[in-house]
Every structure is written in structure tokens, then in C-alpha cells.
Amino acid sequence: MAAPSVEKRLRKPKATKFYRVGFDFRIHTAPGLRMENIGDRTLMSPPGGRSFPPLSEPPRLVLDRSLGRAPADWELFHDFWLVSDRMKGVLEAVDREGVAFLKCESRSLGRNAAPDYWLCDVIRVLDAIDEEKSLGEILDDGTENRHYNGMGRLSLVFKEGVVGSAHIFRPRFWGNIICDQTVKDACRAAGMRGIGFRDTSN
Question: What is the pTM of this model?
Fold first, then answer.
């Protein structure tokens, strides 16, 4: 049997694949839910870092099927995500240090008891974009508001040495959520609904 070629033995390991995490827009209808104790306030992470805003009481989530479908495991809610107990378990199992959760007081207007839901934030921010290899328009360059134009053509490559063992994070200068194959595979294996993944290099 012929020995493996030197080229094959010295081949570099395959680069990690990264994904932009968002909502699965194949779901076209709105969820039947509302928060009854935040009024007209928009919940935003405070300036200077990712975290939940100070609240005088837990968010009170009302599930109302007259307003729409049952919530999926992953729903956009203001500056955060609303996640099911199942999704919380998946994210904690894969990368506990990268995420934070705030439990909602859930109640249902239907006959069934309301399942638990949580506000979720990806709190890890990494300066991980390889700008020499990435393609995209940078806006407000040279200022504290420097960021990538998310509306234009964008192909991002990440520095794996900076990412390290992290599986989910937000890149500096582009606040969207990024994950690796481990997170995608875990969500698929658990049958999570509502979460979508897009290759960041495309």
C-alpha cells in the first residue's frame, strides 16, 4: 500500500464555519404575545456593553392566540430575543458564558398553562473580524460609531485565534449574533423552531 503523500499529511485543518444568527423568516406570521408591564418602552441594552436594562419587576409575558400563532423557540423581541426553556437549555449546554437570560412571568389567555419563556442576550463581544480578508463597507470610520454597513454586500471572515473556544458571540463593529457549527448542529438536533442561520462568508 502506498504511503500517504506529503501534501495530504501536511494539509491544514479545515477553517471553522461561522453563521449569522437571526429569525427563520420562513415563518411568515406574527406570534401571539405581548408584554403587559413595559408600556411603550423599547427594551435596549444600556450603552457601553451588552446586558438587560434595569427593570422594577420581571417582564410579564401574556400569550394570546387571538393575536397570532404560538411563539417559537426563538423570537425577536426589541433588542433581545425571547426564547423557550428548551432553547435556553441548548444555549447553556453549548456556551453558558456567552449568553444571559432574564425570566419572564408567563401566563396564557387560553386553557393551557403558559410555558416558561426568557429574554435572552448574547453578551460576549469579540474583536474578531479579520478586516484584511473580509469584504464590506465600513461607516463612520475613525469615530466611536465605526461599524460595518449591514445593508450592503458583506462577507465576513473571523480570526479563529480570537474566537478561541467561544461558540456564540457578537463581533465588534457589527452587533449581530455569530455562531459556529456547534450551535447550529445543537439547535437542529433539538428541533428548535424560529432560529435561522446564514453563512457569514456569503
Answer: 0.88
How does DSSP classify residue 13? P
186, three cell numbers: 445543537
Burial of 48 per CB tally in 10 Å (0-12, 13-18, 19+)? exposed
**Neighbouring C-beta atoms of residue 93, cutoff 10 Å:** 10
| CB 160, CB 200: distance < 8 Å | no
The tens digit of pLDDT for each residue in 106-139 reads 999 988 889 999 999 999 999 999 999 999 889 9
Beta strand extents in the chain (DSSP E only):
18-23, 33-35, 60-63, 74-77, 80-84, 99-103, 105-108, 117-122, 125-126, 138-139, 147-148, 168-171, 177-180, 195-199
Cell of 48: 457601553
* Residue 71: band (very low, low, confident or very high) from pLDDT cuts 50, 70, 90: very high
